[in-house]
Design brief:
The protein is of the alpha/beta class. Helix content is about 45%, strand content about 20%. The longest helix is centred in the last third of the chain and has 36 residues. The chain binds (2S)-2-hydroxybutanedioic acid (LMR).
């Protein structure tokens, strides 16, 4: 009899322990992979997200950040996400074309006048809807993050489009960007971000396009004697996760993670605005690159040569979307 009571006590104790087990179970790990340096808008946003999650969801969720293409380059990261090898990333909007053609919108040259216009469009209904443009492929956009406007760096001074003729430019994996460089009779080469410095240093390519913070943090300015302040295109990101992972999180946890992410994105956007000024100034101060400004007439020449690219992609992107984005300029 005594033995029987002991056994049933033991059974109760065991099942109580099992019920309480989640409290002792391992936290859900979010591997956040990106390709840029830590002292960039995306690098700072990812670190902020990790810290906020640590503060608010300790023991439940843990964010591990892998910068500088340490874990995956942008050409592999979305596949890896679908396989569950990484849970979050924020590739440039230019890098989603295997998943949707709609996001090509953001690559159209001279579409947005400034970052305020980008914000207006991204926060509009049409802009927000694009976060779901990859859902059929099992991925979901959790928010946009800014970097800023792109500049043209080169081994030669670029004042007018004819100066770019015959030069080789590294581009992200985007057909719109390829068309943009073909429009000025240059040769575009799709290459991963991690290879750009060496390609420039060894003169395998002549130039590239990027934001002030990427040109500064990856030291492109040290191997590019000229940077034209063209502001001709946008480099922005979409923070992405897999629907399977996202829907698998308990609802209360998912809401907290999303809140932390929204705050981290707001912080990253502030960093982006600051860095587009500060990193430009650091490059000027270094005296390694000459910054070339365009006068109104020179700028018009670039716009006129590159703008026909819009028509070329109107079918894939959608005329209504292009118009809505353009109308966000005030
Ligand atoms: C690039 O490949 O130039 C950018 O997408 C890098 C980045 O993530 O800012």
């Amino acid at each position: 009899m005594y033995r029987k009571i002991c056994l049933s006590f033991a059974a109760v104790a065991l099942s109580t322990a099992l019920l309480a087990a989640p409290a002792f179970s391992k936290p859900t790990v979010i591997k956040f992979s990106h390709v840029v340096a830590e002292n960039t808008p995306k690098g700072q946003m990812a670190n902020k997200f990790r810290d906020l999650v640590k503060e608010r969801l300790a023991g439940k969720v843990e964010v591990e950040v892998y910068p500088n293409s340490q874990l995956f380059g942008d050409n592999k990261v979305l596949e890896a996400m679908l396989l569950g090898d990484v849970q979050m990333a924020a590739p440039a909007l230019s890098k989603y074309s295997r998943y949707t053609k709609k996001l090509q919108l953001f690559d159209l040259p001279f579409l947005f006048a400034d970052m305020a216009s980008v914000d207006r469009f991204q926060q509009s209904d049409k802009g927000k809807a694009l976060l779901n443009s990859i859902s059929e492929k099992g991925l979901i956009g959790l928010g946009y993050l800014h970097n800023g406007m792109k500049q043209l760096s080169s081994s030669k001074p670029l004042k007018v489009p004819a100066d770019a003729k015959g030069l080789k430019f590294r581009i992200m994996s985007s057909d719109v960007l390829a068309a943009q460089f073909k429009a000025v009779h240059a040769t575009p080469l799709k290459k991963p971000f991690s290879e750009v410095f060496t390609l420039l240093q060894t003169k395998a390519i002549d130039g590239q396009e990027n934001t002030w913070s990427n040109i500064y943090s990856k030291k492109f300015f040290e191997v590019q004697p000229f940077i034209t302040e063209s502001n001709h295109g946008l480099l922005d990101y979409m923070v992405v996760t897999s629907i399977e992972f996202w829907d698998g999180l308990p609802q209360d946890v998912r809401l907290e993670v999303k809140k932390a992410l929204d705050e981290a994105i707001a912080f990253g956007n502030k960093v982006a605005a600051e860095k587009s000024l500060a990193d430009k100034q650091k490059i000027i101060d270094s005296k390694r690159s000459e910054i070339i400004s365009l006068n109104a007439d020179e700028r018009t020449q670039w716009v006129e040569v590159m703008k026909p690219v819009w028509k070329e992609f109107e079918g894939e992107v959608g005329k209504d979307l292009i118009e809505a984005a353009y109308n966000s300029n005030q």
